[in-house]
Amino acid sequence: MEAAVFISSLVDCCALIFLSVYFIITLSDLECDYINARSCCSKLNKWVLPEMVAQALATVLMLVSTHWFVFLLNLPVASWDVYRYVKVPLGNMGVYDPTEIHNRGQLKSHMKEAMIKLGFHLLCFFIYLYSMILALIND
């Protein structure tokens, strides 16, 4: 049972790493003017909800399987994703809005957030991998 939890968390984490890299590449394309703000934001907003669900799934899996350290490690990121999604102003297209993404350094802050999430997911990947190997050895 424990190995199955970490295997599914590992697969989930791989998907989150892929999404983080996708967000970084798309935001850097906008920064270099390879794509326009509207297409960039529509591409990114399409993946905000799946990212939030995947992060919540990893958090809930750790809660249900009573791995408290990893649960507490995942909780702030899942909470931040929900907070960002809920706090979108009414007139905006989504978390990433084309009319505001170049204002007040939002592009830089979105890029920094994507880099931090990539580092976090890489850390979680190795934690899940180590825990999965331990669970398989103990079974």
TrEMBL record:
One of its GO terms (cellular component) is membrane. One of its GO terms (biological process) is vesicle-mediated transport. The keyword Membrane applies. The gene is cnih4. The chain crosses the membrane at residues 5-25, 52-75, 118-137. The lineage of its organism: Eukaryota, Metazoa, Chordata, Craniata, Vertebrata. This is Cornichon family member 4. InterPro entries: Cornichon (IPR003377). It is a multi-pass membrane protein. Belongs to the cornichon family.
